[in-house]
Amino acid sequence: MKLSIYTLFLFAFTFIGCNTPKPADKISDKEESTKPLPYLTFQKENMFPGDGSLLRAEDGVYLEDGRIVVVDQAKGLRLIDKDGSNRPFGNFAAAGFVHLPPEQTASPNGMVLEYDGKHILMSDVADGKIYRVNIDSENVEMIYDHPYGVNTIYRDKTGALWFSQSTESTNLEEMFRDVNIPVPHGAVFRMADLKSPPVKIMDSLYFANGIIMDKDEKHLYISETMMDRVHKFEVDTNSGSAKYAGVAANVGTPDNLLVDSEGRLIVASPLYNQVIAVDFENHSQHVIFDGSTKDNLKITNEWNRRSHLGLERLELLSPDLFHPLPGLLTGMFFSNDGQTLYITNLGNDLLKYDFN
Predict the structure, then answer these.
(1) How far is CA 91 from CA 66, 142, 149, 354, in A?
(2) Would you say residue 325 lies in a domain?
(3) Any domain includes 23
(4) Which of 3, 27, 44, 265 could staple 278 via S-S, CB 3.0–4.6 A?
(5) 320 inside domain
(6) First-to-last CA distance in the chain?
(7) Do strands 40-41 and 229-236 pair parallel, antiparallel, or not at all (unpaired)?
(8) Three-state secondary-structure class, residue 258
């Protein structure tokens, strides 16, 4: 079935010593404290809230009181209570947010909870605006308007803001044009604070996407979706310096990123319908979640074939690529205790899993 270009927009897009140890000595104290990673698969009962009430829930954050907030294409953000009941969150209209398709299509995409736990930042990959929301009052301020769409954002402990620009696009149609035949117009920027002009720290990326730092904020990771790799920078958050350190991991179509409590890099892979953990210490990768089917993988293989040959591929971004998932998989986030994993996507429900 051939889909309209606007429908495609909604579906597509944001890891030994020489002496043999005795059995009792094989597991170190650190390994004993590290929980084994699960292998999760799609089950309908894991859809959350389960009523199709979300709209393009591409990213989300977990609040201290157990509620979660996800992006919402029509309203900006949506607050979800523990029982799944939800409502629009934040007065985005007062800050100039507009979603009136097809004339003007908003695309809330990236989110980050600031370290004070009192504010959320959200970026729009369509028009490049970045909004800041006070969680208690729900007041919304548009803090920056980038010339091109802003995919994902991260605010470090010093207050500096880092963000990715996927391509030089000012709307979704232009963005997906550069997904169809990729161009090196992606970039990463840093703002010293919310009032400072952005400084470019990396460019010439083929669709810059997810961005995150490790827990000590010594390293910055950036997804380059169309080249199947995650880049790594050594950073000094006090001075703002960022030194390129190479490719941290090769993962198919990496999207959103996070770092878990054990320091592993967690990567969402939309074209493979997977969430993957990259374990730098053990030099390994582990599939945490696999929602793919044989039919999905046929399309994934065709995407890869066309990518290697430089052929157009936008028509492959259809529901057949991700069915039976609620939407194209884009990211993930944990509850504060690490016991619950939420998987985000471009559909109308999250996926929610016990992670223990």
Answers:
(1) 22, 11, 21, 32
(2) yes
(3) no
(4) 265
(5) yes
(6) 40
(7) unpaired
(8) strand
pLDDT at 34: 62
Per-residue model confidence as pLDDT tens digits over 4-39: 544 444 444 443 344 434 444 343 444 444 668 999
Cα–Cα separations (whole angstroms), residue 278 to 51, 100, 139, 248: 33, 40, 37, 9
Q: Does residue 205 contact residue 221 with C-beta atoms inside 8 Å? A: no
pLDDT of residue 107 exceeding 50, the answer is yes
Report the alpha-carbon angle 326-274-299, nearest 5.
75
pLDDT tens-digit map of 247-298: 999 999 999 999 999 999 999 999 999 999 999 999 999 999 999 999 999 9
Residue 103, pLDDT score: 87
* Residue 131 located in a structural domain: yes
Q: pTM for this structure?
A: 0.90
**Could you count the other beta carbons within 10 Å of the beta carbon of residue 20?**
9
pLDDT in tens, 334-353: 999 999 999 999 999 999 99
Supply the range of the domain harboring residue 341.
Answer: 5-15+42-354
Please confirm whether the linkage preceding 23 is cis (ω < 30° from 0).
no
What's the CA gap between 167 and 163, in Å, rounded?
12
Q: What is the C-alpha separation between 279 and 277, in angstroms, rounded?
A: 6
For position 93, which CATH number holds?
2.120.10.30
Q: Among 340, 230, 323, which residue's Cα sits nearest to residue 280? A: 230
Mean pLDDT of the chain: 91
Q: How many domains does the chain have?
A: 1
